[in-house]
Every structure is written in C-alpha cells, then in structure tokens.
From TrEMBL:
Residues 9-91 form the U3 small nucleolar RNA-associated protein 6 N-terminal domain. Keywords: Nucleus, Repeat, rRNA processing. Residues 307-577 form the U3 small nucleolar RNA-associated protein 6 homolog C-terminal domain. One of its GO terms (cellular component) is small-subunit processome. This is UTP6 protein. GO terms for biological process: maturation of SSU-rRNA from tricistronic rRNA transcript (SSU-rRNA, 5.8S rRNA, LSU-rRNA). It is found in: Nucleus, Nucleolus. It holds the Pfam family UTP6_C. The gene is Utp6. GO terms for molecular function: snoRNA binding. InterPro entries: HAT (IPR003107), TPR-like_helical_dom_sf (IPR011990), Utp6 (IPR013949), UTP6_C (IPR056907), UTP6_N (IPR055347). It comes from the Eukaryota. Belongs to the UTP6 family.
Amino acid sequence: MAERIEQRLEDRVPELEQLERVGLFTRREIRAVLRKASALEYKIQRRALRKEDFISYIQYEINLLELIRKRRARVGYSFKKDEIENSILHRVHCLFNRATGKWKEDLQLWLSHVAFCKQWNAKHQLSKVFSTMLAIHPNKPALWIMAAKWEMETRLSSESARHLFLRALRFHPECPKLYQEYFRMELMHAEKQRKEKKEFQKAKMDLGEFNYSEDILSGEMARIVYRDAAQKIKGVEFHLAVLSIAKLFDFTQDLQKEILESLQVKYANDPLTWDYMARRELELGSPESTEGTTKQRKIAEMTQREERCCAVFEEAVRAVSSEDMWKCYITFCLERCNRKTNSEELKQKRLERTLSVFSKAHESSLLPEALYKQWLQLLLESSLFEQAAEVAEAATKRFSQSVEMWQMRLQVLIQLKGDSVSQCFEEAIKHVKSQGTVALWTLWVEWSESTSSKEETEALYQRSLRATTPAESVTMKEKYLDWTYRNCGYKKVRRVFTSLCENRPFSLDFFRKMIQIEKEQESCKMFHLREYYERALREFGSTNSDFWLDYVKEELSHPQGKPENCGSIHWRAMKMLQGDLVEDFVSKYTLLQTGHL
C-alpha cells in the first residue's frame, strides 16, 4: 500500500514543480499540498473504505483547482494548463470513478460528478459518466431527461438526444414527463433547422448539399411522438402540458389544432378541458394594442373577453355539473377579481360576477367547503357584512360537523357584534364532535373575556375542561390559569392551580406559567416553587433535562434556596432521565458548576 501511495505522490511532482516555477505557489505551500495529499491518499487506500474520505479528497482537489484559477487571474498567467490543471482534473475523475464504482446506488455521488464535468467543460468525460450512470440507474426518468438535454443543448446533437429518449421510453413506456421532453426536443430540433435554412436562404447559398426534410421542418416528428404518447398515457393533464409546449413554437398551428381536437373528443366532460377552453378566450380574438387605442377601449375589450370566458364556463357547469367544475369557474373569477386595474367599473363588474358565481354554486349544492372561506373573505373585504352572515350560516348548515365552518361563522358574528353569538356557540358545540373543538372553546372564552362577567367566563372555562378531550384540555388549562391570574389575583390562581392538578394530562408550559406567576410576587416563596417543580418533574422528569437544571438554579439563586439540595436533585435526575438526556444533563450540570452556564 505504501509503495502505491508513494507512486501517486511522485506522479504529482511535475505539476507541483510547474506551480512553483511559474510563481503560482511557494515552496512552503507545495510542501503543505504534499502533506495533505499524503494524508488523504492513506485514507482512501485502507481496507475498510469510507465514502466520506473520498468526498473529502475530491473536495480538496476541487478547492485546489479553484485556488489555482484565482491565482492565475491575479497574476495574469494563463500557460501550462495541460501540465497543471489537466493532471488534477484527471485525478478528480479517477476519484469519482472509484467512488461511484464502490457506492453505485448513491445518486448524489453521480450527480456531483456530472456537475464537476459541466463546471470544467469535460464533455468527453461527461458523456462516459452519463452512459455508466444510466446503465446503473435506468429506473429514474429524470436522469434520462438530464442526459438528453445535455446532448441537445450542449453538444448540439439532436440525434444522440433522440436515441437517449427512445432508450428511456423502453424502460418507462408510460412516463408523461419523458414524452413531454421528447416532444419538446423534436420541436426544438425542427425550429433549429428552420432557422438554419432561413439563414442559408438569406445568404443565397445552394441548399442541395443540406438535407432539410419538410416533415421535420413542419414538426412531423413531434406529431408522431404525441400520437404515440396519446395511445399510452391517459388523462387531460398530459394533453394540456403538450399543448402548452407546442404553443411556444410559431410553426405548430396544425399540431396545436390536432391536440385540441383530441382533447375535446376524448375528455369532453373533464373540468380541466372546459377550464382550458374558457381561458383560451382571453387570448383568442384579442386585437393587438396600438398607440391609438384609448384606455376606455382597452377596458371594453378586456370586459368582452372576460364575458366570453364566462359564457364558456356557464356552458361548462350546465354540461358538467360537479364540484371540480364550479371550482375551476370560481378560481378563474377570483384570479380576475384580484388582478389590479385602475378602472373602478371593471373592478366592480369582476366583483359582482365572482359573487354571482359563488351564489350559483351554493344554490347547486356544489360549492366545496374550502371555497366558502374565500367567499366570506371576499364579502367581508367588500363590507357586505349582512350577506357574509347569511353565507356563514348556510355554510354551517351544509357542513355542520366542520370546525372551520363554525369558526368562520362565529368570527363573522363577533365582528358584526350580533346578539346571537352565545347561541351560535352553543349550537356549534352541539354539532361538532368533542375531539377537535378546542379551537371553538378558545374562541368562545376569548369572546367571553371581553363581553361577559368574570363569573360567566370562569364557568365557561370550567365547562370547556369537561367538554374537551383530555389531550385538548391541556390548552384550556393554560389559558384558564393565565386568565385567572390576570383577573382574579394570586390567591385565586393558587386555588385554581391546585384544582387543575387533580386531573391529568398537563403540559410543561402549564407548570412554567405557575412558576413565573410565583416569581412575580413580592414575597416569592421557595416552598411554593419547590412544590411546582416537584409536580412538573413527576410528569416530565424522565423526558426533560432542562427542567432539572432550572430546579438546581432555583435552589442556588433564590434567597430561601438550599444549595445542599442540589446533590439530591442531581442524583434523582440521573435516575429518571432516559437515553441521551442523561449525557446532556451531565454536560450542562458541569458547565453550571464551573460558572459557564
């Protein structure tokens, strides 16, 4: 092993001598490079190889290359690259090859090698890397696409890219993304050839020696790809994706027409088809803006186009009456409504149209739950409070077990300061299951705090503790404790704390809150603090090391504290804590003893 390492170090000598001779590195730096290289070589020649050692070595060599590049730029020396950089690049490629040969399944290693080849423009080497990587990872379509894109865009080889896509489709015959990118590649190739032909014609060159097929120039290859894909891949999303790609090229009108006809025939009842057809009206028939076009005329044209879109959507909801169809229609209306415009008339029309569509969907009982919230927000933003209250009531009737719907209705009523808020809360609690009602109880007690007497609010808190599930009652306990202290004082909060401790579960914040309340008193008693810490540690002593440390700090810093208790607390903590928490506690306790915590 030593002989092999010595040989590798000797192979470095020519490049290092050149670095010193041309003044890029000093003799001292050369020795440092040799020492580091020797250490790294020994690590990758061990019997038990580690991936991290290869990564470290590769990163060191890359950093060395970057340093050489910066030094060259600084001194303005650009010669001897074959003797210096190429030698290092060859070594990095060898390291990557060894690493990927050993850990073939590590995709990140392969991608790092690809990125390195791209960065240093190693085209020949990158071609080999892609070939080997795809042989080992043929089940990843993204890698095939990456390789084909590189062949097409960097090496300008459409033939190689096509060959890669065809190979990929043998492994993934029903992959939509592969077909989309293959389709795009064929159109890019056609566009490239069209531009070439145009330039040659401008230069009045003889095109006899160039083989420009009319089928390729018109995008016939892309049409074949689409037709093949359409037989294997079902779903409107693929057709729409291919159509959006075709629209990027100005010579694909016939192809776009074919895709659109296929879409309308095969997926006539799909909401996404109708959505596309409707939105298409925004682009169709829109005259190009000219300097003489007035602002008023532009607004009129936009209004007409939006009305055409809505006419298609109206036809769609009659033909395909479903939640998804109404959702597409409403989403379109909301998008137009949120668009900025200086015309108040257009803004008002969009708002009225959107609210009308919401109402129609609601009357059809096909408005999804999530859209009720957007409807209410729109009504509140438009200051239509009475209508918002009616919509909120209708939403809770339709989705009577939805906590979110009841929350929305209650928030609207609270905002309107209606008389039926309390009655609505009662109705909500009756309809919604006990699990998940903590949000409603939180809203109720917060409303009660600002509108009702202390006695009524306290009764509500106690009722919430009985009504919620044990896990959710933890939140209400914390809020109850906080409210009691703010409104009823220290003595009352002590009694409430004692009563709440009778029923599990608790949270750590519940005890922290009570400790904080005790510390805020003028006569803060250590006896009470110990009680709170002991109660908390009975519940969380095995899972929280910080609370033990806080207890120790309290004994050390409080005027009535007993430092001699710290040893006992430490002993108990070591017994109760589990797993890594013991080590964590020991290290922090040591820092505390030495005054570093």
